[in-house]
Amino acid sequence: MSSYDAFADSFAAHAEDSAYNAHYDRPAVLGLLGDVSGRRVLDVGCGSGLYAEELTRRGAKVVAFDSSSKLVSLARRRVSSQADVRVHDLEDPIDWLADGSIDQAIMALVLHHLADPVSALREIHRTLKPGGRLVVSTAHPTADWQQLGGSYFTDEMLDDTWNSGWEVRFRRAPLTVWCAEFREAGFVIERLVEPLPAESMRERFPETFDKLSNEPFFIVFVLQKSPVAGQ
């Protein structure tokens, strides 16, 4: 069972209009994905379907999955029959998707929960068409360092409690490690973006808007599929 099953409803409600999800990560990730009309887009770790819903609204043919059956149920309710949403653990091969069957993919705030990101990234690489792109967002390494202290170069899995009692496991790692793992999985970094908050945050969450206008909390990568993993 996914750890997110334990707080799926509260997580989904929070993500709907929270400062960091609705007015920071989603605008950045979806903006970097660009025009998706008529394209087959994979939503990796889709949660309650907020990204998938917007992608279908923009004309994409969405395939989505999450390890939490409760979040998948919420996502299916949100997108109805407009997207193919499945329960799947990213630690397992995505064997129900053929090689080169996906035009673009997103992995929003999922990477830092993976104990073996290279294997997962290789599977996504396999499903992408030649030249396909994956947009990945995760916690900014400097934000983790400022919050947790110690050496910036620490690479470890940690257990923590987020928001109102969400028990989660996540990884802190330096930028050097993330970039090396992208390359090992077969990706080239096309863009690295430290997003600024959307203007919609200014009125809703003014203090957070000011903070994120001066220091990063998330980081977003646009990764392009290279022909051979590790090249």
Which key features would you list for this structure?
alpha/beta, 7-stranded mixed beta sheet, 231 residues, Methyltransf_11, SAM-dependent_MTases_sf, Rossmann fold
Outline the structure in words.
- The protein has 231 residues and is α/β, with parallel strands linked by helices.
- The model has no long low-confidence stretch (mean pLDDT 93).
- The longest helix has 15 residues.
- The chain has one domain: Rossmann fold (3-Layer(aba) Sandwich).
- The strands form two sheets. It has a seven-stranded mixed β-sheet with strand order 3-2-1-4-5-9-8, with helices on both faces. It has a two-stranded antiparallel ribbon with strand order 6-7.
- It is built from nine helices and nine strands.
- It is 37% helix and 28% strand.
